[in-house]
Input
Amino acid sequence: MAAGEVLIVGAGMSGMVAAINLAREGHRVLVREAEESYGGARIYNPSTHVTPIDPIKTSEYIGIDVSPVFHKVIKCPAFFHQTEIQFPVYSVYGVERGDRPGSLDTLLYGECLNAGVEFEFSSPLKEEEVPRLKPGTIIACGLIPRAYKMLEIPFITVSMWMSRGEIGFSDYAWLWFDECVTEYGYLSAVNNYYFDLLFSFGRRVDEKALRRYRDFALRHQGVEHESWDYQVGAVPLAVPDNFRLFRDGLIMCGTMSGAIDPFMGFGISGALVSGKVAAMAVSDPEGAQREFDRFMRRFRRSFYLKEAWKRFVRPHVGLMEWQIRLLGAERINRLIRLTEREKPLLPMPFAIPGFGHVATH
Ligand SMILES: Cc1cc2nc3c(=O)[nH]c(=O)nc-3n(C[C@H](O)[C@H](O)[C@H](O)COP(=O)(O)OP(=O)(O)OC[C@H]3O[C@@H](n4cnc5c(N)ncnc54)[C@H](O)[C@@H]3O)c2cc1C
Output
């Protein structure tokens, strides 16, 4: 491509945020996308996500008003086996991904067209093309394992059962912890659409685990879905210094840059802010690196906390359940509520890029 032109690989949320910002600066922007149209990878979307985020400050930072598609989560019970406490929802929002009206991708795609961004769909980047990519090309391929392999980025696998579809409620989520997965099961519902996910990092999730989760959902929430799909994805959480803005002259963007919370896997906020940072990296690499470092400064701490949690705490859900019962769920909920303020009295282990520091320069 000629000077002043930027190629972005991946028309997901971070790629489109980068594209809009660059097109507005006068660059000619071409986005190559593996799928037939916008809406993210079809193996994952449509879907709904929940995430701690400040939609207004994030919108100000990225220069795109995404606040209309973020919906405040009203309640999110967290279950340890069958024992329930309340996950703090002070800054937690639900958002829809995919190509349905009301999704984040639909909003961003509309902004891309307004800004004059060009798209080339059904155009996956292939391994043999990687050495020929122009320096400054933006890579925003999300959680697709093939992309990590071809760019030699260390990753761990995410194995997951997923279900999605219309449902009769919104702005609600739940979390479920059990020994049968290394991570958790969660349902979120936005715009009367649900996404249910049961996932593990680095190991398979067998059908027995899915049966256990389905049994929980039916007994505790009265919810049962007919169909479930199995997929394997990738996350850059293999090593503590996995996060990089630049790799061999290419600009990393979104989850591929490592902009994801190691503790819970929250990646929405990181994808949005890193899209803006990747756009900045085209003309001001040093300034962009400073912004990236600022957003990622808690990554290592959260990575090591997660390692400790994985080894010493997470395998013992029964023990956690027993402790909740001993202390009393109400007392624990009161403690959790101390985290629900702008300056939390109790720190959370999360390191969500952009969350809490989008406005502080
Ligand atoms: C199933 C699932 C559930 C999640 N739940 C949550 C949640 O509840 N809360 C939260 O905060 N985060 C969640 N995350 C994480 C969050 O969704 C991601 O971190 C975020 O979407 C990543 O944005 P991105 O821009 O990096 O990539 P994406 O938005 O995923 O976009 C990547 C794009 O690149 C394209 N692509 C891939 N390979 C190629 C190629 N070779 N050539 C061209 N195009 C390519 C894909 O088709 C896709 O369109 C979840 C992730 C998954 C997979």
Remarks:
- Residues 9-15, 32-35, 40-41, 44, 49-51, 124-125, 140-144, 147, 160, 197, 233, 254-256, 260, 265-268, 271 surround flavin-adenine dinucleotide (CB under 6 Å).
- The longest strand covers residues 156-166.
- The mean pLDDT is 94.
